[in-house]
Specification:
The chain has about 325 residues and is of the alpha+beta class. Helices cover about 20% and strands about 25% of the residues.
Length: about 325
């Protein structure tokens, strides 16, 4: 309670009606008719505690772990269809033939060649070597040039060393693999390829066990991609490292009501899914080693489309 609020409290000699304090600006409000004092700060704290308990109970019920894709198995294609959320309701009339009507997730280990995976891993290592987060999670976005560096981001294309790090062949391979993923998603979900666009952010990621220094390093919280990026309709990940060999932890977990469905990263594995709340998910914290991956995101909205990255000199 502030000094002003304490001065406004009713005293034995005060015959004026009790004052109100705006709950947006203070922690209390006095009901004029009843004289009851409401402590909004305490109510808010209790609501937060209740919400935390409900979330804990929810996750405790859904903590049964089911392996959707194991690291040591090669999957030609594995998929599951799930009911779409209401997240796309307003967009169905605007992007017919693209907005998800059939939602789900799919995994394939044969979409990208081992040589292409090796080339992309090499691009990630070279680019991220010019920066790197102080915490455990670093990103490199070839489209915007965003590169984690310390507790912030820099534009990699403005760094002198970047002029000799990348080649035109790097960008050709990147675009070629992106197109493969684009076509696979469009074909699986029954979308006209011409209506599906690459969107921002699309980036390389590197995760280590280093403790988080900023909120950008806290990758392990459950989230919905479309809530974070409204333009998203389809999300994909291409893994560039092996779970259990290159790193421990770092598995990708879908949170469903009956159980958690887990994808164990495998070098060259593509995992794709609709971006709405039907696919609530998180990434386990990496406990050892280094996890490399590429996130490739797609939208049905041409206003949010981005071009393939180009070599800058």
């Amino acid at each position: 309670m502030t000094v002003k609020q304490r001065n406004n409290r009713k005293t034995p000699g005060n015959t004026k009606p009790p004052t109100k304090t705006d709950p947006k600006n203070g922690s209390e409000k006095v009901n004029v008719r009843s004289g009851i004092r409401i402590d909004w700060r305490r109510i808010f704290t209790r609501l937060v505690m209740i919400s935390a308990i409900m979330v804990a109970v929810y996750f405790s019920k859904a903590n049964k772990m089911v392996l959707f894709a194991k690291q040591d198995e090669e999957i030609t294609k594995k998929s599951v269809e799930i009911s779409c959320s209401e997240d796309y309701a307003e967009e169905l009339k605007h992007f017919q033939g693209c907005t998800p009507r059939k939602c789900g997730r799919m995994v394939s280990d044969i979409l990208v060649k081992p040589s292409e995976v090796a080339a992309l891993r090499n691009i990630a290592e070279r680019g991220l070597a010019l920066g790197g987060s102080s915490g455990g999670a670093s990103i490199l976005d070839l489209h915007s040039g965003a590169l984690s560096k310390g507790n912030a981001f820099v534009n990699i294309y403005k760094l002198e060393l970047s002029k000799t790090v990348f080649t035109s062949e790097d960008f050709k391979i990147y675009s070629h693999v992106k197109t493969k993923i684009h076509h696979a998603i469009a074909d699986h979900f029954g979308i006209d390829r011409g209506q599906l666009y690459l969107t921002h952010p699309t980036f390389f990621s590197r995760i280590t066990p280093a403790p988080a220094q900023t909120i950008h390093d806290e990758y392990w919280h459950p989230h919905v991609d479309k809530e974070t990026y409204e333009s998203f309709h389809y999300t994909s990940l291409l893994y560039l490292a092996n779970y259990g060999q290159d790193f421990e932890g770092g598995r990708f977990v879908f949170i469903d009501r009956d159980s958690n469905k887990t994808v164990e990263p495998r070098q060259g594995r593509v995992s794709a899914f609709t971006s709405g709340s039907e696919n609530l998910h998180f990434v386990e914290q990496v406990t050892s080693g280094t996890r490399y991956a590429i996130t490739v995101s797609f939208t049905c909205d041409p206003k949010h489309a981005i071009e393939d990255p180009k070599l800058q000199r």
